[in-house]
Structure formats: structure tokens, C-alpha cells
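Lecture notes, part 5. Sequence design as translation. It can be helpful to think of inverse folding as translation between two languages: the language of shapes and the language of residues. The source text, in C-alpha cells, appears below.
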């Protein structure tokens, strides 16, 4: 589990900050065995309970495009990405 401040940036040990969106993209790329160019990611949306959701679609070669959602809890812990169904065309 990756934790980071909901203020959007995380220090990963390097000098480069990482955003929630970048962490989401990395998880989606790994889970869907794809590349950044095949992702369409919406801006992070904060929920009433303080948690965050990042939604998007991934174009998978030889398969139908899929919708996904990344979850970040109210404490800033990245909970993961999951497929949420077929992407609308």
C-alpha cells in the first residue's frame, strides 16, 4: 500500500514529486499490461468523506476498452485500481 498526502504530491525517495494520478496510472499500466499512451485519465475527484477517486479508460490491444477507477482513502493511502466495466465509445 502506498501512502501520500492528499495535497496531491508524494516524495518517493527521488527528488521528483509524484501525483495521485501518476500513481494511479502506474498501477493501471501494470494491471492491464499497457502503456501510458493507451490511458485516458480524468482529474482526481474528492468525495464527501475525504477519499479520492480517479476514473478513466484504457485501450487494450485485441480486447475491448475498459473503464477503471483508482481509490485513495481519506488518509491518502492508495488502495488500488480496478476495472469497472467496458468503456463507453
Amino acid at each position: 500500500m502506498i501512502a501520500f498526502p492528499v495535497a496531491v504530491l508524494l516524495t518517493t525517495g527521488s527528488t521528483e514529486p509524484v501525483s495521485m494520478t501518476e500513481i494511479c496510472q502506474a498501477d493501471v499500466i501494470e494491471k492491464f499490461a499497457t502503456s501510458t499512451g493507451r490511458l485516458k485519465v480524468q482529474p482526481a475527484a474528492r468525495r464527501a468523506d475525504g477519499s479520492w477517486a480517479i476514473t478513466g479508460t484504457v485501450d487494450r490491444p485485441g480486447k475491448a476498452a475498459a473503464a477503471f477507477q483508482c481509490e485513495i482513502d481519506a488518509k491518502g493511502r492508495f488502495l488500488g485500481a480496478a476495472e469497472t466495466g467496458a468503456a463507453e465509445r
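The translated text above is only one of many valid answers, since several sequences can fold into similar shapes. The beta strands are 2-3, 9-11, 17-19, 39-41, 45-46, 52-58, 66-72, 77-86.
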